[in-house]
């Protein structure tokens, strides 16, 4: 499996979480499509099948992350 560069993962995480924080799920079709695209890209980039697992896996690949550090898990 190819591994995405940490800078790419960081950017994808930031975009996804920004849209989620803005309640993009209730936005128009273009916004929802962008969230779906980001979720798909994060899943492919991390070798996972759902967005929650993809976000955790992506965060663990960022600089400074430790495998035993569960503070990276979403609250």
UniProtKB/TrEMBL annotation:
InterPro entries: DUF5133. Pfam families: DUF5133. This is DUF5133 domain-containing protein. It comes from Streptomyces pyxinae.
């Amino acid at each position: 499996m190819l591994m995405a560069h940490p800078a790419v993962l960081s950017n994808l995480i930031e975009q996804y979480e920004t849209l989620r924080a803005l309640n993009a799920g209730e936005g128009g079709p273009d916004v929802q499509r962008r969230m779906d695209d980001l979720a798909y890209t994060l899943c492919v980039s991390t070798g996972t099948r759902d967005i929650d697992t993809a976000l955790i896996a992506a965060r663990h690949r960022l600089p400074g992350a430790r495998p035993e550090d569960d503070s990276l898990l979403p609250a």
